[in-house]
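Protocol step 4 of 6: structure prediction from sequence.
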Amino acid sequence: MKLLQRLFRPKERVIDRKTLADFIDAQSAFLVQKGIYEYSRARAGHYAKVLFAEDGFAASVENARWRAFPLGLAMVGEVAEGVLRPYAGDDRARMRDELTALVLSVLDRYPVPPSIGAHGWDAARSELAGRMELTAGHAPKLAMDIPEPLAETYFDLMPIHEKLRGRDFSTTRNYLRVSLCNIHDELTGRLDGPAVVRTLVN
């Protein structure tokens, strides 16, 4: 997740498997990391710079962002599935299966995070696959509704002691809702839907 490198690249069109995978990768990383960093800074207040300089806290942030990354992939992957579904026609099931494989391939770009370990990373991958498969059972959700099943899990990963979090869950959930709406708009603006579906199902 080389976030800054990805953020400041020119915004290329999403036209095939590779550009779709790159989009999902970059947007998922940005979604989860921005939330973790901004929440932690807001909670730390004037002491944020000191807190982020501490090795123990830095390790907690690193662990949180890797645990959150599969959640980001699930949310952005569901956005992509909903956007692509109208272009798939009779190939919807094949498109969904191929999109699930593509989302999993994004996770597989990265080595196992040492703080999570191979067993934990495999479990996160299996959960991600299951979440992507669940999209088949319902109509596409509004982007703002996609975070609902995962928002609390994401919030619980914040590297701030639970006693200091107060009533911040709704703020984090709203952050995810707004961000997924923006990601949806970004994808629809950059997407060549028929071209992407062709590369997925052929």
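Step 5 (inspection) to follow. The chain is about 70% helix and 0% strand.
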